[in-house]
Design a protein that fits this description.
This protein has 6 helices and 7 strands, in the order ααβββαββββααα. It is an alpha+beta fold. It starts with 6 loop residues before the first helix and ends with a helix.
């Protein structure tokens, strides 16, 4: 078992409801639902993935793909306005608009939202296996900008 990531990072990436969705819909593991409720799920961080006592191991790759999928689904619901060549405003839920910007052309987009800042600050240090699978820190606001740039 690895050291636990911070509660801030865990609350952003991992809820029992999202793990239940990951197990049932993404990994097609439904046997646990006959014996346990979502709130009964017990989760540990291992070197190879998430160990869920009631359903087994979920690899960091599967978890990363699920995060990417959910992020892209949420990004599709956002309105995006281009302010300049490197700055975009993306509709938010906690505040009306979030600024997404690119510092250099060869660097990934950055966002001012708490989700992005938390992932950028903590993900690589606290969950390096997941960060390797994701490739970079991102949020649904940066994903929304990436979607419109390639359409």
């Amino acid at each position: 078992m690895l050291t636990q990531p911070s509660s801030q990072l865990t609350s952003q990436l991992l809820s029992k409801k999202s793990i239940a969705t990951l197990l049932s819909r993404w990994c097609c593991r439904t046997g646990w639902e006959n014996h346990y409720r979502t709130h009964d799920l017990s989760i540990e961080f291992w070197a190879t993935g998430l160990w869920i006592r009631q359903a087994g191991l979920v690899s960091y790759r599967d978890w990363a793909n699920f995060i990417i999928y959910c992020t892209n689904m949420k990004a599709g619901e956002r309105q995006v306005q281009q302010v300049s060549k490197t700055v975009y405003l993306v509709q938010g839920s906690q505040q009306p608009w979030y600024a997404v910007h690119r510092v250099h052309t060869d660097r990934p987009l950055r966002c001012e939202c708490m989700l992005y800042r938390n992932r950028a600050k903590r993900l690589e240090k606290e969950l390096p296996q997941l960060f390797d699978q994701l490739g970079r820190a991102f949020c649904h606001h940066t994903a929304a900008v990436e979607c419109i740039r390639f359409v």
